[in-house]
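Take a look at this chain, tokens included, and explain the fold to me:
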Amino acid sequence: MARPDKYQSFAELRQHEVEGRDYQIRAAPVEGAGVAILAPHGGKIEFLTSELAWSIAGSDYNCFAFEGIKRNHNADLHVTSSSFDEPNALSLVARCNVVVTVHGLDGDAMEIQVGGRDTALGERIDRELREAGFASRVETAGPYAGADPDNICNRGRSGAGAQIEIRAGLRRALERDRGRFEAFVNAVRLAVAH
């Protein structure tokens, strides 16, 4: 069972944590791009999620990462996706028709769970990941379904996006194997480009 978040909103987090010391925000808007790739729990909060988001976005899509940079206790910076209201992220996704968020889950399993209200996009991501040899499944209920309209992945113009939850075991494997890392990135990019 995941521990409850220390902060219930970004505004609350900002009252206790210092940008540049405890966390950093990186954003790269791409003029005219209607797609945003986000890592709302990047850096040392959920390792490798920022790197994956930046690689998926490349130079084609908008990218945003909220990253923990503390020496310890980066989990304190986790604001759940349905409460993630960092102003730069909200502004970015409000301009986009397609929003994909990249997350990390604990556990040694080599698996991926795809959720979000954009079921067609989620199914394309799941299919492309499975075709690339990854153990992926679509979540339609439960804590990783990403169905809450307030989830940051669902706050774009369409009101529906996709979230990708990647177990720590697989993230460690992707860290070690550049070929698999690129296969993951390319699978998601293929799904988004459809």
